[in-house]
């Protein structure tokens, strides 16, 4: 599998982009013309650098407004093209992308467009250059790959084929299955991009919001499956126009891009089975169905430990060699760590996921270029496998049975209300939110749920949950408004009877986050709950939600440093997070 990336995906100057692409292991790049024009290096220097870096220059793009024009205008097109063919010769390149006319087309006639592409191909052939014709989703007349293919077929020239771009096809809802009817030798190039589901004009969607495969909501494995079934064996090239990636570290973006292709190849191979050919597979990992532990770090974790005890956790002992203490409540395990770290404030530093088999899971993470975490272990201690996620939280692949004996704690008291970790909510920096979605999708096989937005007093909070098929692991990723980062990560503990748990916790001194009276008046109006239930909710500062699947009762603790806790009780098959209550929480927390 040859991998390629368009320079438009990365920030920086052309040379910087090339170093980043090479560093991330790409075989090739597409040169996006504005990058070359702005570069201080000559085409010969760029060519030599590519060769030194082991990159091939696979596509020069884009050449615009070539076809569907009147004869006078077409003379100018040939003139403009010839200058580009000369430039491509200096670069040592032989494939140019011609995108469907968006600006100057006046003739809506396939025969005319085909004739012009044929003449352009004749000229290209004299320079040893081939043309890949791409239907842009907003093309003036040609905005559908089936039409661009018909025109290429009519042009009937060995130097013209088509370029397929997943964005233009999937954003318009065009059926990609008919790609299989195109002869492989006529698919000259393949560009891949994902995108979030948005309802907006396709041009703005394409120029600002494209994502790497696995980060959005297009079905890229199915799409690539059709292209490979057609027999395409050229490079898989990423072409992602994205406002965030244009301003973040190109080396990191390029690695993220390479990770996305490795994930995509694996998913497509899975889908195609025998037909997949030489697509590289990743070691298989079944999504974890339980959290193993959460680690909280702080210069002083005592405030957190007081809260844990009030909630109902038992002290699970000190670690044999490390300065960490364990707290347990049912299958919920929290490790408190006083070792100095990035922030002195209490924060979630690590999350352990109970994966069925940690060796292949770790091998898979390594193949996906997840940075490994090294922690000192002593003789007789379990060397746990861990990787750093994009936001810096360490992700452990672990089983409590393997490490719990390293703590000197006693047995927890029996508790009919024993909790388990229901979800862990991690705040994401704005520049790595999409990368985090791909990280958890690819490394842990979690599935992204639809994005939600919640209004808080300081701005909108964007939230996307990554979850396992049976809902045992739920990982809401939150993007906070500007200036609110570094605040308010939390994890939720699910119990059987929250009313009993909160009443007991209050006896131990817990003060849940205060909920305003207006909220309970509204609950009565919305759900018509019985008076005594509303009185209990009000008394205990419990929040409530209900949908067709069941009910959700929950409450929050106050925030200590950067963390707070949530208690939840899911009734029946309720699968949400009380999103409607989030504005109330956010205002209370802003206090
Ligand atoms: O947005 C554009 O103009 C544009 C240019 C070249 C492409 O390959 C493409 O998909 C979009
Ligand atoms: Mg394209």
Overall description:
Helix content is 34%, strand content 24%. The chain has 18 helices and 24 strands. The strands form 3 sheets. Strands 16, 17, 18, 19, 20, 21, 22, 23 and 24 form a 9-stranded mixed β-sheet that branches. Strand 3, helix 4 and strand 4 form a beta-alpha-beta unit. The two termini are 54 Å apart. The protein has 2 domains: 3-276, Alpha-Beta Barrel (TIM Barrel); 291-590, 2,3-Dihydroxybiphenyl 1,2-Dioxygenase, domain 1, CATH 3.10.180.10. It is α/β, with parallel strands linked by helices and 591 residues long. The mean pLDDT is 94. It binds 3,4-dihydroxybenzoic acid and magnesium ion (MG). Residues 61-62, 97, 99, 134, 136, 165, 191, 206-207, 239 line the site of 3,4-dihydroxybenzoic acid.
Secondary-structure-derived class:
alpha/beta
**Strand content range:** 15-25%
Which CATH class of the largest domain applies here?
A: Alpha Beta
Overall average residue pLDDT: 94
**How many structural domains does the protein architecture include?**
2
CATH architecture of the largest domain: Roll
Shape: elongated
Largest sheet: 9 strands, mixed
Binding site for Mg(2+): 423, 490, 566
Keywords: Isomerase, Lyase, Metal-binding, Pyruvate
Binding site for a divalent metal cation: 134, 165, 191, 239
GO molecular function, one term: isomerase activity
